[in-house]
Amino acid sequence: MAASDAHKGDVSMRNAFGSVLAFLILLLIGVLAFSIRLFSVIKYESVIHEFDPYFNYRVTQFLTKNGIYDFWNWFDDRTWYPLGRVIGGTVYPGLTLTAGTLYWLLNSLNIPLSVETVCVFTAPIFSAFASWATYLLTKEVKGVGAGLTAAALLAMVPSYISRSVAGSYDNEAVAIFALIFTFYLYLKTLNTGSLFYATLNSLSYFYMVCSWGGYTFIINLIPMHVLLCIVTGRYSSRLYIAYAPLVVLGTLLAALVPVVGFNAVMTSEHFASFLVFIIIHVVALVYYIKGILSPKMFKVALALVVSVGLAVCFAMVAVLIALVASSPTKGWSGRSLSLLDPTYASKYIPIIASVSEHQPPTWPSYFMDINVLAFLIPAGIIACFSPLSDASSFVVLYIVLSVYFSGVMVRLMLVLAPAACILSGIALSQAFDVFTRSIKFQLPSLSDHSHIDAGDASSENVVLDDTIKTDKSEDTPKERTTKRSKKKEKEPVEKPPSKSQLKKRLSVLPFEASIVAVFLLVLLVAFYVVHCVWAAAEAYSAPSIVLTSHSNDGLHVFDDFREAYAWLSHNTDVDDKVASWWDYGYQTTAMANRTVIVDNNTWNNTHIATVGTAMSSPEKAAWEIFHSLDVKYVLVVFGGLVGYPSDDINKFLWMVRIGGGVFPHIKEPDYLRDDGKAFDRVRRTEIGKKYFKLTHFEEVFTTHHWMVRIYKLKPPKNRIRGKNKRSKSKTSSTTTSKRKGTRRNPF
Amino acid sequence: MARSTSKDAQDLFRALWSAYSATPTNLKIIDLYVMYAVFTALIQVVYMAMVGSFPFNSFLSGVLSCVGTAVLAVCLRIQVNKENKEFKDLAPERAFADFVLCNLVLHLVIMNFLG
């Protein structure tokens, strides 16, 4: 009696202690997720990184200065020079609004942080949120232990760090949190069948739509899961509650975001959800009728209902197809098409193919970005199949799809990372569970506590608990022998889950084997941690606006970009137009506050092609194009002096291709002749032309390391016959392009 | 053949009707509500087909408000239904509160989208 009482008290004490511990661990995971992303601030400075973040930063500045209503109506005349751009209607506002709210909140609490500081630290803060959301999601699938492991893994997965270091102020920073949280709420609704969570789910989906174009992944993945459940006979009324309100509310909410608007009902990316919406109603009706009729009557009814249902389905499909055919973009946007057909972009849209993050990843990038998780994923998938619940089937579907998408585009590795963390977390926690339990079971002194402590990790989900544990034992040698473990796995699944006590005994492994296995697993995780810290510190923290290089004589810092932008903002007129390749558009508007011709939001291909043509034309023609665009200065990035690899000559072929796509007189083969002498670092030979003079452009500024060079368009000359002729003959004799010419100047 | 089919169908409808008349009144009220919402949606779709969908956001919000109302009511019906064992623990009051909350969100969005 007393013993059982004590045991009961013990259990509740243990639960309380366990949840406090879990809370503390979560807090520490949050701190870890935040602090591991601060390497960039420590090694460089608190600065916004790369290209797109500068645009987001500028938009946030505008939002905090002018308020939300001006933001929605903002027409930006500093970009895409004669055209301009409607920022309020073409930007995903989630990130900006989040940072704006943070800024407003902090300032109303009398914490005077600058907009830039808030923007720099938004991504680390949200990665802490994302790891907490991962905990919740994994808890829905496999319990607290797996949740904590997955959260810890996600806090430092390199793939996610690469997009969310301090200063990397981009949509993905908040979108990954929104993605995971939406999935969590979906699973929560699926497990509880509560309309309350369904409402939260659609709101969270709304936040995701606000934040990132990747929301289409959600609105396709969830219907696929619903379809999977229906096909495998797992339909339940909880599924209906989780899905049907999400479609209606989610569609309406998505249509509220200006950049999505009517696309939410007009483009093919969303049609899958409507189709499944209809299917689930038919299925729900069938199940309802099945419930109220006798089995014999139901057979009769089946023929009728199914035929009517099919007829309705076909009618809807016909309507949908008609809509697809009539919709302006034929339903699919270029980016989605390039997902379904990986070769699409390189064939038809050079502007998408030219972005390096849209290329397919190489094998090493998988090991770089998810490291040991790549080996743990198969084990996690197996763990999900024993016992297969609605939630675990969702996770399996998620990983399968995201592996495919990550194989198409490097940047979608980011979508794979959370799935990889969740599955690896499940695999690791279940493996540890089994090993520690079998160790404790065989230590006589601890045998009392063994049961207690082992149960601790997964006491939350009583239903799954016992069955899972037994299977897991075979699960750990899995890294090496997945096939074998799969076979073993089959047996326990078939057993009824009632005799848990007996099975627990069966699952005990040899003492020494468990010790060694635990040791190896800890080693594996330690290796992962070392790799993550290395990746965060060395690989992914460079702001790319400030460059460093280590050489024999110490550290060199190349701050040329900011030097050039500062020069522009101090020495040129406010309304001067600056032309550069589109990569530098956002930075020029944000840092130099000058009007640019094209920028990183590549919405107008013709305009970019015009600049590309100008860049690849002879000097005179280039001058004419630039002059017609009212350009005063041309900004050129030159890596020749310090060996900066991604300069304009590196991008030159894309300028030619994009220019040639619209203006056929630019032909790629014309630029591939080898006729000169500059210095090719790879082949260690001189190529190109040197020592020439520019006629129509003059150099006005060159930065310290010659990385950015700014040229001014000379005003048109008076028409003196002789002079004019001379300059003409000069340009024609040096058939090189103007940009090529500028680049050769140093030698 | 045809006669046996129609007889089957008659039997079926009779069985359906008798089974349905056994459902509690509150569920029947919800069913009526759902029917009404779906019917309203249909009217709007027919109207759109005849007149055109010019203020597309108005049409969309009109139809989706009806569809949404129907869907939420079906959810409520599922949760309140005593025969659904899955929702034994869920008090009808709680289900109704959730329903109201969800409707509130839905119609706030609709009002926002309408104009």
TrEMBL record, chain A:
InterPro entries: Oligo_trans_STT3, STT3-PglB_core, STT3_N. Residues 468-497 have a biased composition (Basic and acidic residues). It catalyses: a di-trans,poly-cis-dolichyl diphosphooligosaccharide + L-asparaginyl-[protein] = N(4)-(oligosaccharide-(1->4)-N-acetyl-beta-D-glucosaminyl-(1->4)-N-acetyl-beta-D-glucosaminyl)-L-asparaginyl-[protein] + a di-trans,poly-cis-dolichyl diphosphate + H(+). Keywords: Glycosyltransferase, Magnesium, Manganese, Membrane, Metal-binding, Transferase, Transmembrane, Transmembrane helix. It is a multi-pass membrane protein. It comes from the Eukaryota. It is found in: Endomembrane system. The chain crosses the membrane at residues 20-42, 86-106, 118-137, 143-161, 173-199, 205-228, 240-265, 271-289, 301-325, 366-385, 392-410, 508-530. Its EC number is 2.4.99.18. Belongs to the STT3 family. Its cofactor is Mn(2+); Mg(2+). Residues 20-423 form the Oligosaccharyl transferase STT3 N-terminal domain. This is dolichyl-diphosphooligosaccharide--protein glycotransferase. GO terms for molecular function: dolichyl-diphosphooligosaccharide-protein glycotransferase activity. Residues 718-729, 737-747 have a biased composition (Basic residues). Residues 468-499, 718-747 are annotated as: Disordered. Gene3D superfamilies: 3.40.50.12610. Pathway: Protein modification; protein glycosylation. Residues 575-634 form the STT3/PglB/AglB core domain. Pfam families: STT3, STT3-PglB_core.
Automatic annotation (TrEMBL), chain B:
The chain crosses the membrane at residues 32-50, 56-76, 96-114. InterPro entries: DAD/Ost2. The keyword Endoplasmic reticulum applies. Keywords: Apoptosis, Endoplasmic reticulum, Membrane, Transmembrane, Transmembrane helix. The gene is LOC107457621. It holds the Pfam family DAD. This is Dolichyl-diphosphooligosaccharide--protein glycosyltransferase subunit DAD1. It is found in: Endoplasmic reticulum membrane. The keyword Transmembrane helix applies. Component of the oligosaccharyltransferase (OST) complex. It comes from Arachis duranensis. Pathway: Protein modification; protein glycosylation. One of its GO terms (cellular component) is oligosaccharyltransferase complex. Subunit of the oligosaccharyl transferase (OST) complex that catalyzes the initial transfer of a defined glycan (Glc(3)Man(9)GlcNAc(2) in eukaryotes) from the lipid carrier dolichol-pyrophosphate to an asparagine residue within an Asn-X-Ser/Thr consensus motif in nascent polypeptide chains, the first step in protein N-glycosylation. N-glycosylation occurs cotranslationally and the complex associates with the Sec61 complex at the channel-forming translocon complex that mediates protein translocation across the endoplasmic reticulum (ER). All subunits are required for a maximal enzyme activity. It is a multi-pass membrane protein. GO terms for biological process: protein N-linked glycosylation. Belongs to the DAD/OST2 family.
